Amino acid sequence: MAENFPTRAEMREEIAEAVCEIAICLAQSIHRLDPQAHRQMNFEAGKAYNRLIGERRELAADILYRFGRSLMDRKLFPEPEPDDLQEEA
């Protein structure tokens, strides 16, 4: 029976997914402390993405793109309602 070894592309994809998942876990922890932090992280991820594209580092740029997209997912990073913000003040 032949072994099913992952291809190099499959391994790269799996590593990219893992790196992105780690970044999301860290971002969610920060988000619990500062519910607006994901917006700043998204801005910084966008700057890093543009730099990496300029350097022709497509895999790294793709990871930053995925991370930035996840930062705007309201299920992962819920934002307080405007009424909730007024109550805190």
Structural class: mainly alpha
How many DSSP E strands? 0
What portion of residues is helical?
over 70%
pLDDT averaged residue by residue: 89
What's the end-to-end separation, in Å?
A: 66 Å
Strand content: under 5%
The ordered H/E elements are HHHH
Mass-distribution shape: flat
Sequence stretches where pLDDT stays below 50 over 5 or more residues: none
Query: What kind of oligomer do you see?
Result: single chain
Rg computed from alpha carbons, rounded to a whole number of angstroms: 17 Å
DSSP summary: helix tally: 4
**Major sheet:** none
Characterize the structure shown.
- With 89 residues, the protein is mostly helical.
- It has a domain at 34-77.
- It has helices at residues 8-33, 37-54, 58-71, 82-88.
- It is flat.
- The termini are far apart.
- 11% of the residues are buried.
- The mean pLDDT is 89.
Feature tags:
mainly alpha, 4 helices
Give the arrangement of secondary structure elements.
Elements lengths: L7 H26 L3 H18 L3 H14 L10 H7 L1
